[in-house]
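Support case: iron/sulfur cluster complex. Customer-provided input:
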Amino acid sequence: MEKNETKIDPDVKKHLLELFPEELETIILQLGEKRFRSKQILNWIYQNREIDFEKMLTLSVDLRSKLAKYFENQLPGIKEKKLSQDGTTKYLLELSDGKFIEMVLIPAGEKNTLCISSQVGCARKCKFCATATLGFSRNLEVQEIVGQIWLAIKELNDSKLTNIVFMGMGEPLDNLESVLKAIQILQRDECFSFSPRRITISTCGVIPGIRKLADSGIKVKLAVSLNSAIQEKREELMPVTKHYPLAELKNALLDFRKKTAFRITFEYVMIKDFNMRREDIKALLFYLGDISCKLNIIKWNEVVNLPYKSPNEKEVKEFVQAISKLSFAVTHRKSRGADIEAACGQLAGKY
Ligand code: SF4
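Agent response - structure generated as follows:
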């Protein structure tokens, strides 16, 4: 949004978490307040983690009542919170229209990674995904995306949120405008000052979105949920492949790599008797062989009513060994939060 488009109107309230610092400043000036007041407000929101107008005590009573008149400050509500034995916490969040999304906080040593949602449900119909069974409801708004990070930072208290991944409910590239604005707000020094290398968008392979992201100039890491390098098999698992075939996806990713600073990460969910055979490994090696990338492999978390099975430890070990021969960085990630249904969509599906 251009700066001069930001106008005050009590009937169309802006949300505090959807604004760039300069947009907030424009409104504050229109309200007849001094420029430094917007810095104070940003300080309350992002440094003091206080979004309640009444508790912003360095502001005059008059300004606080103007804020209440012209701005929204509602956050997603925590409806349910489940703590796994491994420290992972899954949150079910209720939005202002009564819809539900999920976010997952995953501690690992010094790192705290937050997995957030970008849509209510998802339209992409991946067969292994619990969110897909919910269908698509709507895109999240900027403040609902930034609000998840705000809540997580508050929940962490003195621990630092180190990484953000768009791997929760929804396909982030299907909600690109809001996702990109949220990312820019997160990265701004006046807001959370998040480093681009600590934010990852994960896509199922939406080629137009990948190209728009590359052209946007916004710095962010990209992960692709691959799960099979065989066209027919991937079509079966991820119908998006019919529209955006593997060969075209690869061209888009090579172009993305040329335009951006970060290596692409591929995610590969190991599914028993489906994508772990010799032919799968051979296809994976061929597909990724000439891309400068990283590969994360992870055991699929079983989801009730979905037709796939998790591999056993022996099968995982054999697959990991075979894949380790590949020349690029391979990471075997442990499934986290299996005891709390941490795969996205599993909790929201109950409501
Ligand atoms: S895996 Fe991602 S893109 Fe595919 S249906 Fe699930 S949420 Fe959507």
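The two ends are 35 Å apart (CA to CA).

Case will auto-close in a few days if no follow-up is received.
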